Amino acid sequence: MSSSDPQKRIADMLDQASRIEGHVQGMDEAAFRASPLAQDAVERCLERICEAARKIGDMLDSRYPEVDFPNLRRFGSILRHDYGDVDAEIVWQVIAVRLPLLKAAARAELGL
Question: What does the pLDDT read at residue 102?
Answer without folding.
Answer: 97
